[in-house]
Amino acid sequence: MTRISLACALAALLTVTGCQALDNLTSVGSPEPVETAAATPEPARKSVGGTVAGSDAAAPPVNDDPMQFMGLQGVSVAAQLGKPDLVRRDGGVEVRQFRGKACILDLFLYPAGSDLAVKHVELRGPSLDADARRACLAEMIRERTLAG
What is the pTM for the complete model shown? Predict the structure, then answer.
């Protein structure tokens, strides 16, 4: 008899907990937006040069995610970033290095069909945090896009 009582109490607890969890959900198509912590505005990232990435009125917004280059063919990399500052070849692998004012972007291209494709990306800088490196990459992309 105690097993049955325990099972009933557990079922009742799960039912109450489940109903409370359902109260916190909004239905699909609900006209009212659900506020989350991610909805709060993110503080602007500053680059080393002091400009704010994405909010400078004179600077066009750019994708500052270094992973955007993953899978790109060598020709597409050249079209987006221009001529690299350094090219190193090791067997069939090619490393293209692009230098910014405070960061370095290394793209590792491996054979893919008749061309090379980016299979590894590194964005680095001396003692810079991830936000500062991404701001530096945004600045580098803007400069290379405007230059050519």
Answer: 0.60
